[in-house]
Amino acid sequence: MDVENHGPPERRRAVGDEEAAMRKTGKNITKARAAVEKRPYLLQDAVPLLQKVKYAKFDETVEVTLRLGVDPKHADQMVRGTVVLPHGLGKSKKVLVVTSGEKVKEAEQAGADFVGGEETVERIQKENWTDFDALIATPDMMKSVGRLGKILGPKGLMPNPKTGTVTFDVAKAVQEIKAGKVEFRTDKTALVHVPVGKMSFAPEKLIENASTVITSVIKAKPVAAKGKYMKGVTLSSTMGPGIAIDVSPLEAAAKA
Question: Domain range spanning residue 147?
Fold first, then answer.
């Protein structure tokens, strides 16, 4: 017996609506994928195509995924860095600054959303509070912030000198993050995922943001990496298909 067809009428309609929505979504993604040829596209062609096949009813995030020829198990082959996107991400990140003394006022004037010292560290510890997108800490506070590794680490919120989030120049750090600074780093499978904006962006803005990210990763190639470094690059959106990218023009420009 089909249990879902029994019970109150409103329940039967809800189940039917869910199934219809799933069928529609399946057809939409199939149609979108069919519009993408199985070949690498130049960025200036891929971005308009991704926007053309959009079917989601919300403003999707556009992301670049890079598959690198490195072995992340070796520290000297880790790829990590930051880049300020020319056109930002389409939303302002909430920034927390953990500091003390005169740097508190500096952080507030720079536009930090939250500023605090030991009491903020305790709040994160006791309440598991992470209602922010980035955390900047001055070096003198890192002894305290270091205790938050288990909470901040899994969320990618732990400040690090290599990404400019452990610094006494808190004003510059806050302003860069607010302007669209993003971090990139290889995961365990040698992939790098970086957001480059929203689907509603003008094509030229997404193209420039994506080009900036890809070029930055190319320039971050570790000396220890051997063989082909850029093994594959894909442009995609939250719900849309993946489009293979031809990065040879960017590789050539980076070497020039």
Answer: 95-178
Do 76 and 186 lie in one domain? The reply is yes
CA distance 136 to 177: 10
Last residue in a domain, options 123, 152, 178: 178
CB contact burial 100-128 (16+ within 10 A = b; e otherwise): eeebbebbbebebbbbbbeebbeebeeee
Q: Where are the alpha helices (DSSP H) in 37-102?
A: 43-52
Q: How would you list the strands of the sheet with 95-98, edge to edge?
A: 114-116, 95-98, 134-137
Specify if 106 maps to a domain. Answer: yes
Place of tokens 């919120």: 157
Q: What is the pLDDT of residue 1?
A: 41
Q: What's the domain count of the chain?
A: 2
Can you tell me the mean pLDDT for 200-205?
97
Q: How far is CA 147 from the centre of its chain?
A: 25
Using DSSP's 3-state secondary structure scheme, residue 105 falls into helix
Q: Please give the pLDDT value at position 71.
A: 93
Can you give the pLDDT at residue 156? 85
CA distance linking residue 220 with residue 214, whole number of Å? 10
Pair 196, 64: CB distance under 8 Å = yes
Average pLDDT over residues 6-29: 59
Q: What is the CATH number of the domain that holds 238?
A: 3.30.190.20
Amino acid identity at 198: K
Higher pLDDT, 90 or 188: 188
